[in-house]
Amino acid sequence: xxxxxxxxxxxxxxxxxxxxxxxxxxxxxxxxxxxxxxxxxxxxxxxxxxxxxxxxxxxxxxxxxxxxxxxxxxxxxxxxxxxxxxxxxxxxxxxxxxxxxxxxxxxxxxxxxxxxxxxxxxxxxxxxxxxxxxxxxxxxxxxxxxxxxxxxxxxxxxxxxxxxxxxxxxxxxxxxxxxxxxxxxxxxxxxxxxxxxxxxxxxxxxxxxxxxxxxxxxxxxxxxxxxxxxxxxxxxxxxxxxxx
Length: 244
Prior knowledge:
- The protein has helices spanning about 15-25, 45-55, 60-65, 75-90, 95-100, 140-145, 220-230, 235-240, and strands spanning about 1-5, 30-35, 110-115, 115-120, 155, 160-165, 170-175, 195-205, 205-215.
- By secondary structure, it is an alpha/beta fold.
- It has a single domain (about 1-240), classed as Purple Acid Phosphatase, chain A, domain 2 (4-Layer Sandwich), CATH 3.60.21.10.
- Strands 3-4-5-7-6 form a 5-stranded mixed β-sheet, with no helix packed on it. A 4-stranded mixed β-sheet has the order 2-1-8-9.
- The protein is globular.
């Protein structure tokens, strides 16, 4: 079985379409989305596109925020900017869009078996969609995040950085971000790479292959559309992208 993993689309429809076109050409058996679909310049269209796929979707932290989950107060200038943009993005969503977000699940088991046990998919960690799992996360913190939910294959998103890490007999996989891939994590400042990221899991004869991928899309056209959308702080958003 071949499974396409997408995560952290962040309202970036052209990036999503580029990734889905490659997955279609590749003939994957199914797609799993790891959350944070709508928060970005084209939230309505992106929610609709993901809904059309009919694939399982794990709820992300920003998906929950669109459904009224309280976010903590901004602690810096960037946080305040993001909050203002988020409020505008939320105004673009219909009640039908929010019904789609309500259908997202906290976590799911993926029938791509490793050692006879289904993989576990989540956004941040099984404990919280706000958890960051990085290459540098201490092992005792991972133990607290996963606890009894440990599986041989653990698949999450949230960090916007691709990850393949072995930990205590388990394999941690993060496909990166379709719509907002970070150049560093955790980011000291927001620097976004000019490509879309995803991954393909391939289980053949009891062996697991993890293929991390990047694909291109017209970033400059996307940023022009973002500036023209009426989104607040659109110039700040566009300036976060590293194009050279």
